[in-house]
Fold this protein.
Amino acid sequence: MLSHHHKNSSLWVPGRPPVTQTLTQLNPLQVFQREQAPIEDFRHVQPNAIHQAERYCTPNYKKYKNNRISTTKYTLLTFPFKNLWEQFHRWANWFFVIIIVLNLFPEFAAFNRFLGIIPVACILIATAIKDIFEDLRRYRMDKKINESTCLVWDHVHLQFRRMQWQHILVGDYVHISNNELFPADILLLRSSDASGTCFIETSNLDGETSLKQKAVPKTIVSLSEDQNTKFQDLHPKMPIDHHCMHPSKSLQEMCGYVEDAQRQKENFSKDHMLWRGCRLRNTTFVEGLVLYAGPDTKVMLNNGRPKPKRSQIEHLTNKFILVCFLILIIMCMIGSAGSAITTAQNHNRNGSAIYETEPENPWWQEGIYSIGTFIINYQVLVPLSLYITVELIKLGLVFLMQQDVHLYHGEKDQRVQVRNLTIPEELGQVTHVLSDKTGTVTENIMIFRRCAFDNFDYGTPAGVHAHQRLPSTGLHPTDELRVRVLSTWRLDESLQNFFTNLAICNTVVVNREHRDMLEVGQYEDGVYTIDNSSFYTVTEPEFLERQERYRIHKERAIRFVDEEEPVPNWQAVISNSDTTLDAITSEDEEENSDEKSAGQRLSRVSTFSQRLSHSIRNFLPRISSIISSPASSVHNFRHKHHKGPKTKKESRYEAESPDELALVEGAAQYGFVLQERGATHVTLQFPDQQNQRIEVLRVLPFDANRKRMSIIIKGKSGPILYTKGADASMLTRLRDGATPPVFDESENETSSARSIGASQMSPDKARALLGHYAGKGLRTLVYGMRRLTWDEYQEFSSAYQFIEMDTTSEREMMLAQKADEIESNLTLLGVTGVEDKLQEGVSDTISSLREAGLQVWLLTGDKLETAENIARSCGLFDPRHPEVNVSTRDDLPNISGIGRCNIKLNPQALTILKENDTTLLDIVQRSASVLCYRMTPSEKSEVVACVKKNFGGRVLAIGDGANDVPMIQAAHVGVGVSGNEGMQAVMASDFAIARFRFLKRLLLIHGHWNYDRIANTYLYFLYKNALLVFIIFFCQFYSLYSGESPMDPIYSMLYSIVFTSVQPIIYGMYDQAYEGRLLIERPSLYRKTMEGQCYSWKLFFFNILDALYQAAVCYYCAHIWAVNTSVGLWEFGFVLATSMFLCNTFHLALEVRCWTWPIWVIFAFFTVLHFVFFLAYHAVIGPWSGLYGPPVLVSFRLMMQASFYIVELLTVVTALIPRLLYRVYLSKLEGKLGSELSFCGLSI
């Protein structure tokens, strides 16, 4: 029974407050009131456990918000009012409400006063239904989150009990196990790690999948040291008062202090906080106090939606609608003037009109009243239903995009994501593509390729070049360096320091398997309790057996290799030596012995290390000959015994960036294996399989200004500072020394190692090597060290710790300045080169985009040489054009007369570009491609803004990391690539794809289709409504401007929202000018949509004039047919309505270029529906309806006459001849008559 017990089967549901207390706290007006600013400077939180009262009686319950969240927009009570309020933020809705009000007055009424409500009501109800479904989706997600569970301390039962998140209060103690989410913003008080640290993954908060270390405040680290002590025994030792800042959305802002029972204070910061939505990783458990709950947490405060984007088509459509409104006003004025004049002249209407009305008001009053009547009649010229129709079309286009199997990535099991439903047509108008490099056009899977220190440059093995695509899991160690490590590592100080720097100066975390003993439950007084359930049948031996099984499982490390591979034994290879690394603190014999045994249990390290050790054991008999001739023997041995890399089942390390992971794994190749990382120590395994515990004194984290990271460790002779960083930030901070000969790049590159001079590498050598590495497209770092005296360290540490206590906004800047002071007078240790492989299909994609007329920009933070190499290999630089570099204003005169080129810009050139320098703007505008190097994230967004401002067009920005978010949000279209740097770029984007190569299909096919479909739908909709209005306008010439229409009023109301509503939706979803294969083969076809040829002022006026012509044909054909006959009002109206409908239908049929079965079905259905409606309507209508001359069986009688079909045929043919000639002209002009009129399938 126990094995099937689920941990959520029973929950602790706290008691609810009395109804009287709830009613007292209820404020009905709080929905409309703004939240008042807090009076106190700090929020004061005391643990709820110290209050011996019900939870709803604690001060925290009364003062602060609970943990229940709600992201819905409405409630059952507020929905009708709030939804209408939001819908009437659209001015078009107010316009139609005014129409309804006007129609209520008999003086203005053009038809039945209640019929005018139907169109507006349909649109409002349809929009409300859509909003309801959207809000229901939010409600279900909120409910799922609120009903998540975690362990909360119950001071009554003195145990942690499982509770839903929504019941958690500020001041609760919570217990979180490994891989669980944090339910609120929590101050860390205790960790399973004895050093009081833990690691969290913040991907739900900021999109970053890297682990971040958090620590317990120093005064209570002792609570984490004894893991066997129960919480009820530790609780009295915890702080009783917590003062923190009021809720803030900034992730970098957090300050406060805690006080214990003796009123001793200690500050805490964001480094001690666990944010809601983050996940505990690589730590067995943590315990903490809730400081912010529900709406006050960081993740909820940052839950705001980005600024909405609007497409260029929508902007232009708004202008078109203004023109339509102007046309409406002109027609109203004409009608009003005509009504007033004809009334004043008392015109004899006998025989001058087909139908008559008798005005009852004076001429001037009749003219004024007729304005309102004509506004009602012509209201559809402002297309209310257009918005909802286009929204439905966009939903259909999004569905088709997501179903495209060619945009599906099988390895990641990801398809294209459309996160912004309002701008799918913008993909068809992109003129500039601004792309990040790392992780976007490259794999962001780093491989340790080259390193240089001391006298040698160690590269990839002979015959293996950096540009070759090697397996991401196969790291190719250099044989010469392996031999050097095996033979001299104990005596080689430069080698030790270089690889120690690689292995420990980082934020890489070693994975371990974690089992929370609290999950086992507890056994007291013969009762086994787990979560909130008790079992009386479990005996104590059974409980102890279960507990021991968990404990054994907990002590095991994660195994990364197959069991058949033997564990390496370097002791059999290397002769014993008493020499140890000077940088490492010597431990006593007993501690070393313990660590050795523990290290052997945990030393099942990377696949490479074991394979290497196995090779070395077989390698020993020939070690002397190999050393004497490394170039040949090692190469032959490698080909004979190397079986290739094995695929890892799981990664051993968690890293903040792939670069750090590659460097740590690179150090592990040569026996320097990072085994453990804590807050105050790291454990490093050396090539002899011995683990050494290194005490960490201080870590100086990386920041964008310093571009360095440092770690200070305790050595035998004093503190040692290890530093790594970019070349520009490192080479200027080296101590003065001798300058050995410069590395010669012209040496034979087939050798894997080369002598580069004396034992001490000089800055000039480093620069030469860095240029050499960058020329091969490698990412470079420089490594240095500095030996400190204890006085120097104590002075620095005191100042640094004092700044850490600061709570002002300048704290981070002052910490960076202090770190900058000690990171000087460095000794150069060496340099490394890491390869970032190019993604598949990048070159072809960039080439196609360039052929389509798009200008591609590549933005990267790399140095020029690395950026140039990537630009050439990915096809960014067009080989037909020269390359020019602009770094200062002095470069401009030399290139002012150059033609089309490939231009390279640095941050200084960007400053010139932002100053609107006409020379540089002209050069950039005619460039084939642009490379921007040494760019920071903020500078990337500035480039986007500059392109938008100075070059026009539509800008697309694509990136994969959090540093690309400003650029993605600043662009007209933001595309996120779901890579290895988290999901923040995807969350901030409008569209998300798995690989860069998918951008080609996304733009050239779906962009073209989306724009072409939406543009033609807009034009058809404007034409369709204008046709109806112009027909009514022509009727006024023969009704003495009375405002009456001969068409049935019900049909007139339903015409736009029923009879002609679905056809444009299906047309807008499935029609296409070209099939996808042709758009890929001929990228130049994209220029048609990019230049806006499908939607322009010329086409708008052409369609309006065409509607005017067709309206005249429809009316006058019916007029000629009916004049001097006995045709009545309803017969004439039926013929006119049918002519209008058929002209509309066949007009759209001429526009269709890809006939699919949905279009056939819809056209046929609504054509039949038109006649069925009139037959049914005229069959049931009678004298009881109150209509003048009720149309009893009018349509039936007319459909029995041949003259009806003749006039309809003549009307349609005459009306559509200009449109047909226009389509034939375009088809012949583009040479695709046959392809456009062909039958197309539904496949994409």
